[in-house]
Amino acid sequence: MGSEDRGLGFFKDIGLSSNNIGSFIDGKWKANGSSTTSLNPSNNQAIAQVTEPTLQDYEEGLNACNEAAKIWMTVPAPKRGEIVRQIGEALRAKLEPLGKLVALEMGKILPEGIGEVQEIIDMCDYAVGLSRQLNGQIIPSERPDHVMLETWNPLGIVGVITAFNFPCAVLGWNACIALVCGNCVVWKGAPTTPLITIAVTKLVAEVLAKNNLPGAIFTSFCGGAEIGQAIAKDTRIPLVSFTGSTKVGLAVQKIVNERFGKCLLELSGNNAIIVMDDADIKLAFVHESIYKDVLDQLVEVYKQVKIGDPLEKGTLVGPLHTRSSVENFKNGISTIKSQGGKILTGGSIVESEGNFVQPTIVEISPNAAVVKEELFGPVLYVMKFQTLEEAIILNNSVPQGLSSSIFTRRPEAIFKWIGPRGSDCGIVNVNIPTNGAEIGGAFGGEKATGGGREAGSDSWKQYMRRSTCTINYGSELPLAQGINFG
Amino acid sequence: MGSEDRGLGFFKDIGLSSNNIGSFIDGKWKANGSSTTSLNPSNNQAIAQVTEPTLQDYEEGLNACNEAAKIWMTVPAPKRGEIVRQIGEALRAKLEPLGKLVALEMGKILPEGIGEVQEIIDMCDYAVGLSRQLNGQIIPSERPDHVMLETWNPLGIVGVITAFNFPCAVLGWNACIALVCGNCVVWKGAPTTPLITIAVTKLVAEVLAKNNLPGAIFTSFCGGAEIGQAIAKDTRIPLVSFTGSTKVGLAVQKIVNERFGKCLLELSGNNAIIVMDDADIKLAFVHESIYKDVLDQLVEVYKQVKIGDPLEKGTLVGPLHTRSSVENFKNGISTIKSQGGKILTGGSIVESEGNFVQPTIVEISPNAAVVKEELFGPVLYVMKFQTLEEAIILNNSVPQGLSSSIFTRRPEAIFKWIGPRGSDCGIVNVNIPTNGAEIGGAFGGEKATGGGREAGSDSWKQYMRRSTCTINYGSELPLAQGINFG
Amino acid sequence: MGSEDRGLGFFKDIGLSSNNIGSFIDGKWKANGSSTTSLNPSNNQAIAQVTEPTLQDYEEGLNACNEAAKIWMTVPAPKRGEIVRQIGEALRAKLEPLGKLVALEMGKILPEGIGEVQEIIDMCDYAVGLSRQLNGQIIPSERPDHVMLETWNPLGIVGVITAFNFPCAVLGWNACIALVCGNCVVWKGAPTTPLITIAVTKLVAEVLAKNNLPGAIFTSFCGGAEIGQAIAKDTRIPLVSFTGSTKVGLAVQKIVNERFGKCLLELSGNNAIIVMDDADIKLAFVHESIYKDVLDQLVEVYKQVKIGDPLEKGTLVGPLHTRSSVENFKNGISTIKSQGGKILTGGSIVESEGNFVQPTIVEISPNAAVVKEELFGPVLYVMKFQTLEEAIILNNSVPQGLSSSIFTRRPEAIFKWIGPRGSDCGIVNVNIPTNGAEIGGAFGGEKATGGGREAGSDSWKQYMRRSTCTINYGSELPLAQGINFG
Amino acid sequence: MGSEDRGLGFFKDIGLSSNNIGSFIDGKWKANGSSTTSLNPSNNQAIAQVTEPTLQDYEEGLNACNEAAKIWMTVPAPKRGEIVRQIGEALRAKLEPLGKLVALEMGKILPEGIGEVQEIIDMCDYAVGLSRQLNGQIIPSERPDHVMLETWNPLGIVGVITAFNFPCAVLGWNACIALVCGNCVVWKGAPTTPLITIAVTKLVAEVLAKNNLPGAIFTSFCGGAEIGQAIAKDTRIPLVSFTGSTKVGLAVQKIVNERFGKCLLELSGNNAIIVMDDADIKLAFVHESIYKDVLDQLVEVYKQVKIGDPLEKGTLVGPLHTRSSVENFKNGISTIKSQGGKILTGGSIVESEGNFVQPTIVEISPNAAVVKEELFGPVLYVMKFQTLEEAIILNNSVPQGLSSSIFTRRPEAIFKWIGPRGSDCGIVNVNIPTNGAEIGGAFGGEKATGGGREAGSDSWKQYMRRSTCTINYGSELPLAQGINFG
Q1: Residues of the signal sequence (chains A, B, C, D) (predicted)?
Q2: Is residue C485 predicted with pLDDT exceeding 50?
Q3: Are C142 and B76 an interchain contact pair (Cβ–Cβ within 8 Å)?
Q4: Whole-angstrom Cα distance, residue D346 to residue A236?
């Protein structure tokens, strides 16, 4: 059955077919490894085949990338911005089919799939402006006829390893900034979302070609741990941006640090929402005085949520990404129960060909060990607290430090929450849930979440090399700190 | 013989005596470990005794420090700045005796000893201003009735592990900034410079006491690897600033990362000076056309340099810090010779009670393995080059990336040197040597030097926790990236 | 004769015809004043007719604009950025015909005409990024439970009065920034370039309409002093950005200040180029040692320059903009002669239907009064100097402070030139002429040039209202400076 | 009777006597004008005599200052910071007697007098840090082998004209920043507070002398409009910082602008406090639902406030500054009555030798013309409102735009108040009154208040000259905007 027959008519709009080559090396599509199948999480049927690269392909790609780096880093930054602008335009023209592909291959619902692509486009627009603002500083020197400069230069190559849950937005956060900063990008997408990796790379490749720039500026690989490890070990890659679990992230960091490289880590999260007694809206630490009310409403809502095909209008919860995620969910639920958790709604697998599970609300003690782990699935733990201080201690007691939120209308609670003794997360929201970060801010988390920051604010500095330069343009050699020999 | 008889009359000005307690714990001087002797590197005679802390002392210190952190972080930043200002005044009043102590115990010449103390004072002055400029940001949100904030909050406790070569300036870089940022400081000085650690701590302690603040805000330990390791492992210390060798630094980083802490590393350097053919002054990659001239002059100068007691006027080269440094020097010279290096001057140990060695010039091929290592001693390698490109490749070929310098009068050479394809070091100087950094800039190096940045510019951000906060102050819940369900 | 017969086929691409309405009011093209003729400076023949607005039209426009301001200022800044992005796309699609129009109506050569339009496009791209970076600050308060914020809010309406010499780029500098900052724009173009004003406005209007936004967000008027004065006096316009002569600028500033408004002034320039004896390239204070050589070459080049139709390939000098500019040139030349100036080449009017004059080189004493005035025409004064100090004094001795340049290869000269005792201009170049500013920097000049800064850097702050907010979120009322009553 | 007998024993601590010379010119105390008497506002008796300078003295002072400027601007900024640090130390040592002098001569109560001196000290501390942070920028150029710099250089001389109400703090805001920025300062204090001007100048003068710097770096004049006008007209003074009434400020601005100078204006204020119905504390637009309650309490408090000698402990309201202020108060009260205002408490002059008046509460319609004027005296207008929108319109309806405050506990009210449609003032407070600004923020107001910003944030930029420098360090001359001739 052809791809159009299976509703994949949009495939050709984005350069995909039933058989695809899974790596873009030195400006060419080329892969000599084994073939892998991309599965639809809604029914576990094959979407298309992808040939993965070998380590030799990797090596060839990196050699070319390393050469391209010498060219790209000397292209003036605003000219690099112009290339990123064109990438944004190319994505904008394919927003709809790319969004569909994300929904299809990853399993998130269509509005979120389109939202992810839109996020790369937003990042492109943002990076264009930034390309004229990668500013160093001129710092007054304490010595006459001297000037101090703080300069920012490209690193050379940035490795980007992304995960299935945000199969393209995270590439956007990293690649748009890395590129305007003068770096080549080596991307390894998630092994289970190869089509997204290929489709996005194709658009970037076309823009590079149209501008007569080496394709190797953007080098991309479908593949798994083998390629990931090659990136981690590669001394040609001064910075590796890794998104994934805390466990794997720590291992990557160790390898990269040993060769004096740097990491930008976006690891596990475990995000709390605190609902104060004066909150307008109801969402999962809940003040005891409103606990019952909030819970009743939540359970009601969860029961009505439509689960199903993410491409279908009205669906609010799509499938989990893989069979093994379903397994994890199942194990998680039984751990929850064994630790005293009470399932208020959901908790079961939805019988179907796909990877569907019920959105689940669990009443549980904050002391249960399971609540300190990241459980990748639609499970909401609900816990009671009495004071804000207590709720903050609960929030900060998990090893992860990604996102957190409070619902309250009291300025003292808001400022306490965002202050020195408040939430210790990287994302600290007020009256909105823990998701939905905007690109103008820096995205990332503390503690076991890894400490990296991506997208806006001064995140770009991580993609550049800082030097402090003192220039003596006079004819004498005075020393700092007033040192005077003799 | 009393300390005054041995020229140590200044000891009592800075609170030292012949027997000293080597840790400041919970605002008290208290140590239950073994006694160690501080030696004068000029004659290897005892200066004074110091009792070191035990791990139990450490634990007591950290418990108190952890409590103090809760107080200190809520003191308004400009009030913290006022405390740091008073510390600066206290140091200023003791500049002379402290400078002498540095020369005596570390072995560097007096002007440099005083320069080091002056550097802490400068850091205090700088940090006072900074205490009103630890600014977060208000970032425009894409959603109506929302605001995004980027906030900076204290980390809690900052561990500072310093090395013998800068026994107090590096504390100044870290502690002044860490304190105004709202962190308590846990300092472990070098095991061979305990008196400096004690003397500086005493001044800080007095200021805290005078202001009725917990002494535990500044907790300090003399001691060695045991205490260092305790700091590295301590989950109460989110940031460890470590100065020392690449080898030890990497090990510290591994331990700290495993517990999700962060490191600020200032590791080994290996610093090159490039002398172009148009340079006004002569210094140690040398353009071949001027190579002979430069070398002849250098050798002449090196031969005349006065080696001796660092406290004596006119001395330009003091002793190495310890006997084992002398041993390292000796081994280094024989390695150099075995790799084809030619000793043009120096190369020998000066026979004496102290740790004196001759300043040494070595003519050597850039391919010799020894030039890629940090050799802690007064050895200058001289190498020829033909083009600036070649000199930069040599400069960048060592694993370390601390400091580097070029002497030239050509703007094109200057900007190439500080640009994307120039020096890959953290410090990139022009027409001044590789030392002498000013505090207004960020100090530190890349690659095996560890990537940390201390003192000025935005180094303070490393001592704080960044959060991106989105506040919804309206009554609706719009989503980012224009996502619209249904 | 139809417009196409006169080579105006491109007119319809940009919404122009032989009769045009010269004001865009409340989203409608509407003008009740007299008709004016746009002339081609190459032959002084009519290009097209334009009906100008009356003061009543102005009033209607401003009323609508004032209402629109209330809406536009509450649109989130990144959404405003999206509108400006679309404006950029609209201009990009019409780059060629708009560039032609600039060449035709203003008289500058085609590459410069296209360059001017490209500059607005670049500004749009830049402003899109900026729309997520109009950041306020969170400043640490000295009082517990207090926070200080520095916020930036829109002004409401920004008036932009532009001059004939940059009939659209200057609009771009101002409007792109003003719009993302949340301001409506009221534009009055130069009276002699009404077609450019209309064509650019049409593109903006379409984008606003397509997005269902009030057209009055961008209100534009062709017209002269009457409309200009209305803007200057209008209390609804907190900021007036004016480009023109120092004389008129001062008058505008007086009127605006009297009503407590602010001005952003880009007034007369009078730009010097210093050629040092070590300069690689030859351009007009010239070091005496190379004076004769430089002058001979310059005269030779000036004689060969092709004068003619700005739309014709190969032309390097187009006509002056109007007949009266030719008259000014003529008077200027005779003043020059009467003050001892010696015409080395050029100095005459080119007999033709158009406003052509010869590019002119004058040897003259720096003491001649005429060199301190802005002479709007292709006249290069050449003067000798002996030392850099002397050349800087000459450069700084004119009342204007727009642009200046030095040609040298000596770092000490470069840093002296850009340092405290160097050029006192807003633009201080090295080894490039005095023109050609990039949008990433702030454009503008000091002294009689008015002190305004447009385009990049932090110029956006001028288009916003800064507030310093102290928020007490605790329950007590401490005072600053430690004041304690009683 | 000697000064000690009159309780002026502290005079000699700060270099004052019964006869004082009122100008510091070229490092010398020298004045040839007439003698003036400083009066104690509490009893209108003479405190001491001061000889004022003539215009010839002024000229001599400015000539010396102009020469000193050439030296001072080339002293490295951190070294200038060290001088300002020493000025801070000198003031700190005299905090008590200087504070007393402010209370005595100006009439404000002692804690506020000391607070004012403390504010200069705080400014000194702040400026020291700033002296290493007067950073320019390195901006990426769109052209290869080019770099763009934004540099900040000293202006030369800054004129500071201060008013009686803040006779020394405002000098501190301006002079501390102006000095570290590399400018000489020419200060004219208020004609009625000459002793404060002299005492502060003496401390600065001593520091300059101790450091072997020209005294003319700080040039100061007691005196009135004649000296003020001389400053305004003086082309040697590129920036005049003026504090005073809107009327005089506008006149000064006009003069300064005509000679292409710049003004930094701190003019009249007229500050509103909005008390919302949910406010915790009670202070002068009051929500109607709590209006009666708030008013009753306010009237009660006002009646109990202790009026009297500002040096006496317990006094909360000192005298007005001069007899003419009392006259203004009297006229103001009668205007208020004639416009329908109802005096709820106070309203009368206190019969005494001094300039005492009663703190006054007036119930009045917002439409009364008098409420739009600055009435320099302790008069509180109380008005009712129904909605926040209405209160903001009232707040914004006065010509002045200095300070404003809201008391509320609702986040939506807070963010509306500080947002685009909120208060149009420079100071926008929440839950604190309209006074008590901290130096870390920028102080100043919009509209008739003049638009200047002093003290913290980026206020320093106003005291420097910005240049955008493009440096071509390559060997070709590309043009911006991709212009390509031929």
Answers
A1: none
A2: no
A3: yes
A4: 79
